[in-house]
């Protein structure tokens, strides 16, 4: 056998191998939220290592885009940081189920030269700042929460997200729960009509604004603040404690919410009751059709979600996400059984 | 001549003609799709969309005025800054520059044009914005009372956006102006010198001769400034409020579409964003047509003036 012959045989063999694998490999496409993208891509690659024939592709195009694409059935599953609205559920061709996967939190960041003590905030005060009603750092409302801290008379500059974002959704959802004025004047969405302030693009845009502007206050995801070592303030929870965001405090919020969990999991857990709870926390959800057209893909997805909710949770804390509490995982396992796989 | 047209000539004509037609079809297609996709918003808001200042995705109320204002204001400011500088560069390179310096200067201006806008944006955030903020805070209080300089000195805002746009369009305007100046017949300058003109006067004559081309270059820069997205959104502050203040954070059409499109799930919201695209499309069309008209009318009068010179040069 000469060399060329050998190569030809090898190529032919490889071709058979490739097509053979391709025929068995199951490719599932999803799209949606950018916030859980790091853990989702970790999960998909880990899952692929254990099940080489399952390949899940995820495009982090944003929650709105994810809801749209899953509604149009151009992808098999969607992902979102804010639960779908009743209108959006109506627009879908079939019943869509929500599955919380991990938890995230949003934290207030600020830049106040001359103040080294960590500042404390509360929902009403944050709302008034973002409404443009509290405009100086030494405002009595802020001073009252931070006894013993000498606050300068610096002007407050509000920094918010300019791009539509689940982070904004969680933040304004919290503000609207604590401030009736915010609820009526501004409302809750991934983009809102901001009463005041400047807009930055992405977490990096907002944190850049805050870092550079003396007197600025903004909000970013907890993960982003942790990974970039950005100092952030604590927030008063429903029990009246001042809590600094941490993975544990966020999981605690979900554990409280589990006690009154609606069966469809479409629930906001901002300002959750209970001790040690960080109040600006939220689930992020996967969106799956209850009765999907492709039953094979449905079966694979159910298997995957089961793994993600159990073994997969151990990857969460390292990536800055809070894992789901046991009680919620149990509820979700029951809900997964509703998905038709044959 | 037409009789001797060979078959390949005809084929070539049809082929290139088809490409030309594709271009027209493409522009029409974009316009039609933009109009169709924005129908819900057009039906709901009508012409009021162009003059409403509210942009409230929660309440479902949309108006494009602050974005139209921000786009035109930032682009016009950018041109006001960029045009004299770009012309200066072009004239220096084509008329006055020592030969050794010419190639490096041409290379550097063209390099500026090749930098991706996100890089300009990052530079804007880390260098330009702090510098602008320092400038703004150092402004005397008497000036700060003027409407042009009102508002807190954030650094982010119209001034930063105009400056970064100016830097981005300078290479375009100066490169094309330089080419245009290069194509001015030598007879123009020689004639001017023959009449006893100084160097300045001779250059002035050449610039005057090339004025339609230079206006074309400026308009190209304007078009680029209107559509610039990333760099602008990173420094303008993204606040949809109409203001004449250079310090005020504002917003542009391209920026709002880029920022909000991904998360817009509501039908009306989406179509309002697409309509912003349509408005930008129409405004660009109007400005381009207007500049064509201007160039065309100038070219007509120029022919009469320039004719004797042309024949002289030919002879």
Structural overview:
Chain A contains 13 helices and eleven strands. The model of chain A is unreliable at 15-23 (pLDDT under 50). Chain A has helices at 3-24, 37-50, 63-71, 86-91, 123-131, 140-145, 166-178, 180-185, 202-212, 222-227, 247-258, 295-309, 326-336; strands spanning 26-32, 54-59, 77-80, 96-110, 120-121, 157-161, 198-200, 216-221, 234-236, 242-243, 281-289. In chain A, the strands form two sheets. An eight-stranded mixed beta sheet of chain A has the order 2-1-3-11-4-8-6-7. In chain A, strands 5-9-10 form a three-stranded mixed beta sheet. In chain A, 41% of the residues lie in helices and 18% in strands. With 342 residues, chain A is of the alpha/beta class. The longest helix of chain A has 22 residues, at 3-24. By secondary structure, chain B is mainly alpha-helical. Chain B has one domain (19-302): MetI-like (MetI-like fold), CATH 1.10.3720.10. Chain B has 13 helices and two strands. Chain B has helices at residues 7-37, 39-45, 65-96, 99-114, 117-138, 141-144, 158-182, 186-194, 199-209, 211-227, 230-235, 253-260, 267-314, and strands at 55-56, 61-62. In chain B, strands 1-2 form a two-stranded antiparallel ribbon. In chain B, a hairpin with a 4-residue loop joins β1 and β2. In chain B, α3 (65-96) runs parallel beside α7, α5 crosses α7 (158-182) and α12 (253-260) runs antiparallel to α13. The chains are: A alpha/beta (342), B mainly alpha (315). The A-B interface holds A 61-65, 67-68, 87-88, 155, 157, 162-166, 186-194, 197-201, 205, 208-209, 212-213 and B 54-59, 125, 129-130, 133, 152, 154-157, 233-234, 237-239, 249, 251, 255, 258-266.
């Amino acid at each position: 056998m000469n060399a060329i012959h050998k190569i030809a045989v090898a190529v032919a063999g490889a071709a058979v191998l490739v097509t053979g694998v391709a025929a068995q490999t199951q490719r599932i496409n999803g799209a949606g939220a950018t916030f859980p993208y790091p853990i989702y891509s970790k999960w998909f690659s880990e899952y692929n290592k254990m099940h080489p024939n399952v390949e899940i592709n995820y495009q982090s195009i944003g929650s709105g885009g994810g809801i749209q694409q899953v509604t149009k059935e151009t992808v098999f599953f969607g992902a979102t940081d804010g639960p779908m609205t009743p209108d959006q559920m109506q627009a879908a061709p079939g019943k869509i189920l929500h599955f919380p996967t991990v938890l995230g939190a949003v934290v207030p960041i600020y830049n106040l030269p001359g103040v080294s003590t960590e500042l404390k905030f509360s929902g009403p005060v944050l709302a008034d700042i973002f409404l443009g009603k509290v405009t100086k750092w030494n405002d009595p409302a802020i001073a009252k929460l931070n006894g013993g801290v000498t606050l300068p008379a610096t002007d407050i500059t509000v920094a918010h997200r300019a791009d539509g974002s689940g982070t904004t959704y969680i933040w304004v959802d919290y503000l609207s729960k604590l401030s009736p004025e915010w609820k009526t004047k501004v409302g809750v969405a991934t983009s809102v009509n901001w009463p005041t302030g400047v807009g930055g693009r992405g977490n990096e845009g907002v944190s850049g604004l805050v870092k550079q502007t003396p007197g600025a206050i903004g909000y970013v995801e907890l993960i982003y603040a942790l990974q970039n070592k950005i100092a952030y303030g604590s927030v008063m929870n429903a029990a009246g404690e001042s809590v600094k965001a941490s993975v544990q405090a966020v999981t605690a919020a979900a554990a409280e919410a589990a006690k009154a969990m609606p069966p469809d999991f479409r629930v906001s857990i901002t300002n959750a009751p209970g001790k040690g709870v960080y109040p600006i926390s939220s689930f992020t959800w996967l969106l799956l059709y209850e009765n999907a057209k492709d039953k094979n893909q449905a079966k694979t997805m159910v298997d995957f979600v089961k793994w993600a909710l159990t073994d997969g949770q151990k990857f969460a804390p390292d990536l800055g996400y809070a894992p789901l509490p046991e009680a919620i995982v149990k509820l979700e396992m029951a809900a997964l059984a509703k998905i038709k796989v044959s | 001549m037409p009789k001797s047209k060979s078959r390949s000539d005809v084929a070539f004509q049809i082929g290139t003609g088809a490409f030309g037609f594709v271009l027209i079809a493409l522009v029409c297609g974009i316009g039609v799709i933009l109009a169709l996709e924005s129908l819900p918003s057009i039906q709901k808001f009508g012409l009021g969309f162009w003059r409403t200042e509210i942009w409230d995705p929660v309440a479902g109320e949309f108006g494009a005025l602050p974005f139209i204002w921000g786009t035109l204001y930032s682009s016009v400011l950018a041109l006001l800054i960029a045009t004299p500088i770009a012309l200066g560069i072009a004239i220096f390179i084509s008329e006055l520059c020592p030969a050794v310096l010419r190639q490096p200067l041409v290379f550097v201006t063209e390099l500026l044009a090749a930098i991706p806008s996100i890089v300009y944006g990052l530079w804007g955030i880390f260098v330009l914005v702090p510098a602008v903020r320092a400038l703004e805070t150092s402004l005397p209080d008497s000036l700060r009372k003027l409407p042009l300089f009102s508002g807190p000195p954030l650094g982010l805002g119209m001034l930063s956006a105009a400056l970064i746009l100016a830097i981005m369009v300078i290479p375009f305007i100066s490169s094309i102006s330089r080419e245009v100046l290069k194509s001015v017949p030598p007879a123009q300058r020689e004639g001017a010198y023959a009449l006893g003109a100084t160097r300045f006067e001779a250059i002035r004559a050449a610039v005057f001769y090339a004025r339609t081309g230079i206006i074309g270059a400026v308009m190209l820069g304007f078009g680029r400034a209107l559509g610039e997205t990333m760099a602008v959104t990173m420094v303008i502050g993204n606040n949809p409020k109409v203001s004449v203040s250079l310090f005020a954070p504002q917003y542009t059409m391209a920026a709002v579409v880029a920022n909000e499109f991904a998360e817009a799930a509501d039908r009306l919201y989406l179509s309002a964003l697409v309509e912003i695209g349509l408005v930008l499309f129409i405004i660009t069309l109007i400005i381009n047509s207007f500049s064509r008209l201007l160039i065309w009318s100038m070219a007509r009068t120029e022919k009469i003036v320039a004719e004797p010179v042309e024949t002289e040069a030919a002879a």
